[in-house]
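User: I've been going back and forth on whether these two constructs are worth ordering. Before I decide, could you fold them both?

Assistant: Sure. I'll take them in the order you sent them. The first construct and its structure tokens:
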Amino acid sequence: MNVFEIMDKKGHEQILFCRNDSIGLKCIIAIHDTTLGPALGGCRMWPYETEEEALIDACRLARGMTYKAAAAGLNLGGGKAVIIGDPKKQKSEALFRAFGRFVDSLNGRYITAEDVGTSVAEMEWVRMETRFVTGLSRALGGGGDPSPFTALGVYSGMKACVEEVFGNDSLKGLKVLVQGLGHVGYHLCKHLHRENVQLYVSDIDQDKKEKVVRDFKAEAVTPEKIFGFEMDIFAPCALGAILNDESIPQLKAKIVAGSANNQLALRMDKCFLKEISCMLLIMSLTREGLSTLLMNCVNTI
């Protein structure tokens, strides 16, 4: 694993490797570009199989944040942090406070927030050690969880795509499959349920899947059956690189509209989508979640 080669390839400014053996913290903070302002990006906690996998994910996500912020017209750069660990088993106040101290050592070059595997609660632990964190509760002067706003952005973008493809923006009766039922996925399902779609859901977390099935009368689909499933809209709201040269030929949707970062494994994969006449919603342009985090930055830093 040649770290400088990875940085050179996509133009990353800085990568910080962090560890605290006494509490089991292994973390990577990637800063892609700070031309427009400090790097903003969430902290993801995930049980990566290798350190290289974690590094590549952090770098991909940081780069994506640079372009999201720029496209949304925000004075922010792109960064991301990943903590290597199981969010169901390894979260602790000590771990996130140690992470907060590493964030603070960057002196504002990187501002963290919640992401996959983390929540407002963990960001409040981080806040004990640094002011360079957003997505905090209203009690601490923040705007709370930005996920509902991100979900609203996806939902609004989805309706725009439906109008383009089907001639009107009504989702009623359409088959929509939401993959990933975390913070954003759950709130997206709430919007879709209210519009009476035929809702199908998938997640590797059985508890999350059962909750959405129960709350919104959805039908569960196993992860291995997603791409062969007949649907009108596919909403990937989990991890990235879900659309690639293997999955796209199997895709049976006319629209892909979800909140997952870096949905295309490679830039060339958009050509495969065009070949199967599938429209891809560019989430960089649905700015609600990012704007909420920016306002939180203004209020709390």
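The second construct, handled the same way:
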Amino acid sequence: MAFGMPCFSPAVPSGQAVRSMDRSKRPALSVASGLARPGSLQRKPALRFAGSLDVQSLLQQAKFPTVLSDLPVFEPTNPESVKTYQSILALAQKLARPEVSKMPVGAIAIGNSGKAYLGANLELKGGLPNDTVHAEVFALLNARANGESGIQMMIQSLRPCGSCRQALLETGNPDLPIHVVDMKRGEVDTKTAGAYLPNSYHYASGQKNWFQSPRLDISEPADARFQPAWRAALQSYLPNPNRKTWAGLSVQTSDKKQFEGCVLTVPAPNNTISPLQDVMVRMAAAHEPVERIQSVTMVEPAAPDYSFSALIAQVLRRVAPQATFSVLSQS
């Protein structure tokens, strides 16, 4: 679809259909880092930090790293350790876009590599609840986007809500420790992901989860404009191979940066992570406002079990009305 801009109607091979989505009204967001892309597109990964950590200095920076290396191990019973991580959580909270709740939430996912991935809540005023990204999910997606194989610990400023408890189980580790730090008192409450959601139903296992899942087999589109979105779709997490819910999204900004996102499934479809939410995280981690989105391409099944295109079009109308939006449906 083109929102107030000419739609393109390329010749498409049999079994594929391109839709340009009409967006006479437009949207705006703030979001994270993406993958490298060819041509004039610039790679804008999540900002990284390695070496001795000066959190107070980072707190003064407008654009600070959202991936931190060489951190001291978090010790929940050590006041100095807790104080250090309170400062890191305060840094994560600076990523927040709490337009609705007015409450910035911070989260840190410690990956198997030992790196720390920051996350915060992203909310769009006037949007749908599905537009939001919670801090824990931001941190998990930030880690996934940077190639982590799994998460060994979560540290956060508030207890996880119900949907986040489900998402945390999709890491495949019900014994994942979740440390909730009281930002005023410095007290730490520790429970496992399984304890937060006992007797749960979840897709993930040690072999198949948000961080370890087989690459999907999706036909490559002949139209080169949709190939970045197709490559993103290949990374979708679909534990049920019979479900046609994969999708990939690619956005280009006004300054030629490109970000991609895919679908991450959870048992409750309304809590499934959409490709736009994945993109929002990648853009926010790169300190790139969603309002700069200029063009969007999407690839999804021709007859999906769940379609994300209408929801994405609605969000774009609000946050990036200048953007074009084209969807390729593949059989």
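Notes on the second construct follow. Confidence is low (pLDDT under 50) at residues 1-12, 23-45. The chain is about 20% helix and 20% strand.
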